[in-house]
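Quick review question:
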C-alpha cells in the first residue's frame, strides 16, 4: 500500500469561523499534503473538511487496528471485529474490554470457546449437515466455534451474503443460533480474490457509515468519502457545503447538491412544499389557476413553474403567482427568503439578491449576442467586468447570509429545529 504523494489524493480546506470549528471525533493520520484553499481569503461560509480516497479509508482502519492491537494483544482480525462492533470508538472498546473481556468478546461475536486457527481439513467419515455429502476426500472448514461444513456449502453461503445481501461486517457462522462472526483471514481461505475484493469494499462502506464525521460523495461512480466536523445540532446555523475531489459540490448535512444559503431544514420544507403543490389529490386545484392579470384559467400539465398567459402574455410564477421577473425559484436564495420574517434585514437580503439576479441576467444577455459581436474587444472587456462583479456580489450575498445564520440574526417563520419543524408551516406564505 503506497503512501500518498500528491495533493490530488486528499484535499483539506479550513475555515476561520470559530463558532463552528468543531474538532473531528478522532485524530486522523496525515495522509496527504494540507492545502490552504490556494491561500485565498477565507469567507464565513467556508468550513473545514477532508476528502479521502478508498486507499486512505483502508489505511485509517489498518492504523487503528494496529494501535488497538498493541494494547489488547489479540489477533488483528479479532481486533477489527471488535472495532466494528464498537463503531470504531477505540476508547470505549479498550475501556470495556479491560473491565469485562469475556462479555465484550461474546457480544462482538468472537466468543471465548476456540478450537485453533481456521484451516481447510479433510476429515474421514465427515458428512456435511447442509448438503449431506460424505465423500472421503471432502474438504471442510470450521471457524473457531467448531461448526464444520463442506467448503462448497461455505463458499455458496459467503457468496450469497456478500454479493446478494451486501453483508460483510457481521457475517455469522451458518450454524443455527451461532453468533460467531467470520473474520477476514477465514474468508480469504474460502473465496476468490474477486469476492474478497468486494468484501473489503463493503467493509470500507461500513466504516464510513459508522462514523458520523464521514460520508460518501453522492456523485455517480465516485468512490471518495468526505470528512467534516460540523455537528447535526449546528445545521440550523451553518450550511456545510463541501467539494469532493471529483468536482461534485454537496451539502454534508443532507447530501443534497449545494443549496447555499438555505439551511437543510428550510430545504426540506421547501422541497416538500414543491412536492405537495405538484402532487395534491385535488387535480383541479393543483393543475389549474387563473392568470393574475386577466383571470383566464390556465392549466399546467408539466414543465417548469415559469408560466406565460396565452391571452395577455403575462409572465408569472406558478407557485407564488408573482411576477416571474421578480422570482427565481430554481435558486436556493429564493427558498431561503421565502421562509424569512419581514424585517429590515430581510429587505436588505432581497435587495442584494435582486441586484445579483439583474447582474447575472445582464451577463447572460451579453453571451446571447451574435458570434460576430462577441469578437468585439470592448464587449469582451465588458463581459469580464460583469463576470467579476457577479462573482463579488455572489460572495457578498453568501458571506453576509452565513454570518447572520451563525449569529442567529435571521428571523424565520418556521422552526429550524428538524424535530419541531412542521410541514404545514411551509404554507404560511403560500
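Suggested answer, residue by residue:
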Amino acid at each position: 500500500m503506497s503512501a500518498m504523494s500528491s495533493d490530488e489524493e486528499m484535499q483539506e480546506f479550513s475555515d476561520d469561523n470559530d463558532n463552528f470549528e468543531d474538532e473531528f471525533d478522532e485524530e486522523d493520520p496525515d495522509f496527504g499534503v494540507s492545502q490552504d484553499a490556494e491561500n485565498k481569503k477565507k469567507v464565513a461560509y467556508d468550513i473545514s473538511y477532508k476528502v479521502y480516497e478508498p486507499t486512505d479509508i483502508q489505511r485509517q482502519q489498518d492504523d487503528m487496528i494496529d494501535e488497538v492491537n498493541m494494547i489488547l494483544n489479540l489477533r488483528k482480525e479479532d481486533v477489527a471485529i471488535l472495532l466494528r462492533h464498537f463503531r470504531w470508538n477505540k476508547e470505549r472498546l479498550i475501556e470495556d474490554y479491560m473491565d469485562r473481556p469475556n462479555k465484550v468478546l461474546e457480544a462482538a461475536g468472537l466468543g471465548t470457546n476456540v478450537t485453533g486457527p481456521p484451516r481447510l481439513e479433510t476429515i474421514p467419515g465427515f458428512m456435511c449437515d447442509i448438503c449431506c455429502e460424505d465423500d472421503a476426500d471432502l474438504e471442510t472448514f470450521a471457524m473457531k466455534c467448531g461448526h464444520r461444513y463442506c467448503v462448497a456449502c461455505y463458499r455458496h453461503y459467503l457468496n450469497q451474503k456478500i454479493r446478494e445481501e451486501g453483508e460483510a461486517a457481521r457475517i455469522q457462522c451458518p450454524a443455527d443460533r451461532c453468533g460467531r462472526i467470520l473474520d477476514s483471514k477465514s474468508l480469504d481461505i474460502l473465496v476468490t480474490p474477486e469476492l474478497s475484493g468486494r468484501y473489503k469494499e463493503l467493509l470500507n462502506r461500513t466504516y464510513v457509515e459508522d462514523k458520523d464525521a464521514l460520508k460518501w460523495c453522492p456523485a455517480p461512480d465516485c468512490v471518495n468519502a468526505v470528512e467534516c466536523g460540523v455537528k447535526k445540532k449546528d445545521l440550523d446555523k451553518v450550511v456545510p457545503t463541501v467539494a469532493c475531489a471529483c468536482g461534485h459540490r454537496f451539502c454534508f448535512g443532507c447530501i443534497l447538491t449545494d443549496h447555499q444559503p438555505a439551511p437543510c431544514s428550510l430545504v426540506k420544507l421547501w422541497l416538500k412544499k414543491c412536492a405537495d403543490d405538484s402532487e395534491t389529490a385535488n387535480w383541479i386545484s393543483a393543475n389549474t389557476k387563473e392568470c393574475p392579470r386577466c383571470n383566464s384559467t390556465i392549466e399546467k400539465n408539466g414543465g417548469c413553474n415559469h408560466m406565460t398567459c396565452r391571452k395577455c402574455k403575462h409572465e408569472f410564477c406558478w407557485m407564488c403567482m408573482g411576477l416571474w421577473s421578480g422570482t427565481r425559484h430554481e435558486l436556493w436564495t429564493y427558498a431561503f427568503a421565502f421562509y424569512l420574517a419581514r424585517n429590515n434585514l430581510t429587505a436588505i437580503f432581497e435587495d442584494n439578491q435582486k441586484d445579483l439576479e439583474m447582474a447575472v441576467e445582464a451577463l447572460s444577455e451579453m453571451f446571447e449576442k451574435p458570434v460576430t459581436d462577441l469578437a468585439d474587444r470592448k464587449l469582451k472587456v465588458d463581459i469580464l467586468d460583469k463576470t467579476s462583479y457577479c462573482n463579488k456580489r455572489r460572495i457578498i450575498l453568501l458571506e453576509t447570509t452565513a454570518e447572520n445564520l451563525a449569529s442567529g440574526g435571521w428571523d424565520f417563520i418556521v422552526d429550524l429545529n428538524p424535530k419541531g419543524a412542521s410541514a404545514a408551516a411551509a404554507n404560511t406564505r403560500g
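Why it works: The chain is about 40% helix and 10% strand. The longest helix spans residues 377-407.
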